[in-house]
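[#protein-structures] MJ: dropping DoxX family membrane protein here for a structure pass
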Amino acid sequence: MSCYDRRDLGLLLLRLGTGGVLAAHGAQKLFGWFGGHGIEGTGQFMESVGYAPGRTSATAAGLAETGGGALLALGLATPAAGAAAAGAMAGASAVHAPNGFFAMEGGYEYAATLALAATGLAVAGPGRLSLDHALGHVLDRGWMVPAALGATAAVTALVVGARSKRLRKADQDEQEALFAEEEALFGA
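AK: finished. structure tokens for DoxX family membrane protein:
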């Protein structure tokens, strides 16, 4: 009988798949790999969707995805890795939310699925086929799960909230400019 069971194998596969996808997406942002745009292009995109400053936002998202994904795949510091990845995906979900749920319509389905998988791994732990297990779970203690997820939720709420405020202000400024233009054309 093996010392590993179906749960350990299942967690390994989930970690490798979720972590690998997240790390690849982060590498697109950080390095321009896999058809990505690197920090400059991603930073410009981040600015265009309300995350400012764009370059800093691109770096943070890229590090959370690349680092969180790689650590999840390895099963190392699983609570922090899962929380970091989930926070990045929550920020991505906020961008896609106006398009509805389904990814084929530009919705948040894909980002939310990655966030839930990363959160699930943070909560469930990495299993015995992991570096956390090999190291005696020194970076995977029970108290670390709510601490990592709570801290990430707070920071994500602040970042997404600031983005929403920026977008509302931009919409208000645009409406005021249109009103002023109409007044100039048609008189008061």
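MJ: nice. The radius of gyration is 20 Å.
AK: one more thing. The longest helix spans residues 144-186.
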